[in-house]
Every structure is written in C-alpha cells, then in structure tokens.
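Re: the pair you flagged

First of the two:
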Amino acid sequence: MTVCHRYTAFAGLLLALSLPVANAADVMITWPGGWEVQAVPAEADSHIMRQRAVKNDANGDPQMVMELTQSTLAPEHQVNMEAVLLEMRKTLQKNFAQGGYQSACNKIHDSTLGGLKALETTCKITQNGNHVITQTLVAATQEQSAYALSYAGPADGYKANEAQVQGIRASLRLGQTQP
C-alpha cells in the first residue's frame, strides 16, 4: 500500500468515525487480541456511552475501526430505526463526498446486533474509481436504549478482518451486563 493510499484510507476512516450516532447504558465489548482500545471521553451530562477499538497492521496502519454507541431513550420513546439508519447513511455519504470520495451503499436490510433485531447497510467508498474503504452501519433498539455499531476499514483490511468483526458482533449481549 503506497503512502498516498495509506493516507487516503486513514483520512476516510477518520471521516467515517465522525458520524453522529445514537448511544446508551451497560455495554461491554471484550476486544480480541490485536485490537487497540481507544478512550472515548464521555460528554458532560450525556446519556451516551461509546466504545472504540482499532486493529492495525504490522506497519501501524489501521485495518479496521469499530465503534459501538449506546444512547438512553426517553421513556416510551418509539424509534423509527429505518429513518435513523437512513440518516446515518446519508451523513456518511455526505461526509465522504465532502472529502472527494464517492459512495455506494446496499439496501438497508434486517440483521441482528447483540441478540437484538437490527437494520444494517454496507457502503463501498471509492476515490477516482478505486475502492478504498468499506463501512458497515448497524442500528438496534431495546426498551430505553438505542445502539449503533459502525465498522470500517480499507478495502483489503475490511475483508481480512470481517470474520473477526462478525465474531465480536456475535459475542455482544446488549442491555445485559457481561462477565
């Protein structure tokens, strides 16, 4: 990977993580070895919890960035998950477009997240016709919590780490305290 491609991929990952997402309570991710957990400072008076980790290659270049956000919802608040995910996708596409990238996302479809029914979409980000980043957005709700999971990586890093990411997703138990 050339320095230019590394910079492009890294810049794209930073753009991807700048998306506004929903968040909330007792979520705990047990990160596998090789993931660098990054501190995400809590905002004052916020009912939002975020956890983020990065998996780097041998050169220190990010191969996958994964972030889970949990937000507390007002009592009896009903969330239109499709509208939330559409807005997340729109924001992602707008942010990448401002950086000179093009994006194509698949249709929002049913999925699962931490044992909850969820909606999901995956976007391929290109620059000058070259596939540089893949990003997946997943959103779910349970009782008074909303969850958003975002993971992204350069095209080759995403593919190489997808099985491990699916394992992390499968191990999540949202709304439950993990051992």
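Second of the two:
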Amino acid sequence: MPSLLPLLRRAYPELRLQLTESLTQSMLSKLRQNELDLVFAALPVTGESFETAPLFEEPFMAVFPRNHPLTQRKTLTMEDLASDHDENGLLLLEDGHCLRDQALSVCGMVPMRDQQRLATSLEMLWHMIGAGEGYSLIPQLALRNRAEWEELVVVRPMAPASRQIGLVWRSSDPRGSAFRDFAAFLASKLPESCLPVTVENT
C-alpha cells in the first residue's frame, strides 16, 4: 500500500481515501452492509452480492529460522515441505486469518490440532520464526522492510506458489464501471516482484 499511495495521488488527485484493515470476512461483511466501498482481498471471494477484478499474482515465500535444514536449498517445492518432518515445522496464524487458509491450501497440509503452534498476527509469526520455533509461508509484499530479521531468518522462493489479489465491490453499486476502470489502473501498476494475472476469476 505505501508504494501505491503516491500513484493514486497523482492519477486521482481528488480521491478521498479512508483506509482500514481487518480480517477478510469482517471487511466483506462491512462491504456488504455499505460501510466500505472497496476491499483488497485474496481471490476468489464467494458471494453473489460481490463483483471482483483480479489485480496481480503475489508469490508466497518460505521463511525459515537460519538453522533449519531446508535453508540449504536455494529453491523449494511443495513436496519439500510435505516431506519435512522436523519438529520445528509449519507455523500458522490463528483461525479466521485468510493467510492461514491460503498457506494450508498452497502446501496441501492438514494440520493436527494438538500439534499446531499458532500466531495471533503476522508480526508475531515473524517473531516465532526468528526465535527458531518453525517456518511459514509469507506473501511477497509482507517481506518488505524486514532488514532487521536478516540475521535470524532465511527466505527461499517456492515453485510454484502464489495467491491472486483482487478488488472487490458490491455488484449492486452503481459505480461498478468506475471501479472496473480503477481496477484496470491498479493492475497496470504491478507491485515489485509480483506477476500479472494470467487467469481471471469470474
């Protein structure tokens, strides 16, 4: 978002922004109740009351504590993670965080309830990894401004692993055409290290 704001100010100088952050389902509930105009979310988003426009593909990166054996590999696959039986394994966010469900979907794992170590926030997840408690899958854009962690963690690309980020609005909103144009503008300004959308959601 920080890199996007200057672009928006130049392209839409009269745009009034009021930003908020919350869990995806909470944001979608507010959108449905006309408390928000637009939501950035990982697609697909279910619900007949919404219209979506894909913006870009955001890669997932594997983030390990420095002493984890999988850091010896320069590039990892899902099979590498699935075959890893180290006691300091996959760390997840608590139920309700969409990133938790996305990480599980990407790696194809079914966590055992009595073996899960859960973080309450993305920031706590970084601390748990840095402390050597395990590893996790973190979206590319969440790696920005993390230089202070370089001595504690190792980041490795996954092949292939990504999520599609899109714009969501109410299908009944009369500004739908303007929102589609806005989404096209955003899609043309790819964040660094992200990829253009190849398959659109409907």
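The beta strands are 39-43, 50-65, 92-93, 118-119, 136-139, 153-170.

-B.
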